[in-house]
Amino acid sequence: MSGVFWMNPSLAWWLLPVTVSLLLSAALSVYSSRVSFGRAFRKWWLFMVPEELFFTEVLERLRKSMEQRGRNRRAHDGFLRAVNDPFANAVHIALLRGKSPRSLNARARNSDLRRKAMAQGPGSLSQSDKAQLLRDAESMAALHFEVRQIRDSSLAQQWGVIAFH
């Protein structure tokens, strides 16, 4: 700027708005990107698009769907995913490193839990029952296979799979 002023002083006044804006842009960018300013501007309804001010039908349906999904979320979603999803099942079994109970009593208990789950659905298992099965690689592999073979549509719905006919 000083070089322009030295060569042609009248041109310096024309470049002053560009120079000042370049000098202030970094500081303005840092301060205007703060969350507190964004919240204040939102409170004053500044810099908002119409969809943020007035929900459209699509956004309203999405909001209701997300609320419904949150309400319907079951406590055993992780258990179902570990049983149903082939990738999650394989990763889970790999992380167990083939660990299965050694005692006959524990194996019999897990076998009974598997039979109960396959007869009455995953909702019949308590949290401790699910945890017991989740610690047994053999039971998780067997459950994954058995759930894939379900023919009863109501039981398949409980497991979150499509009945095999």
Question: Helix segment count?
Answer: 11
Computed CA radius of gyration, to the nearest angstrom: 31 Å
Amount of helix? over 70%
Which regions have little confidence, pLDDT < 50, spanning 5+ residues?
Answer: none
The chain-level mean pLDDT equals: 86
Q: Roughly what fraction of the amino acids lie in strands?
A: under 5%
Number of strands: 0
Quaternary state reads single chain
Supply the helix-strand structural class. Answer: mainly alpha
Distance between the termini: 81 Å
Morphology call: elongated
Task: Please give the largest β-sheet.
Answer: none
What is the string of SSEs from the N terminus onward? HHHHHHHHHHH
Give a quick precis of the structure:
With 165 residues, the protein is mainly α. Helices cover 74% and strands 0% of the residues. It contains eleven helices and no strands.
Describe this structure in words.
- By secondary structure, this protein is mainly α.
- It has a domain at 77-159.
- Helices cover 74% and strands 0% of the residues.
- The protein is built from 11 helices and no strands.
- The radius of gyration is 31 Å and the shape is elongated.
- The mean pLDDT is 86.
Task: Break the fold down into its secondary structure elements and pairings.
Layout: H1 2-7, H2 9-32, H3 35-43, H4 50-53, H5 57-72, H6 77-84, H7 86-96, H8 104-120, H9 127-134, H10 137-148, H11 153-159
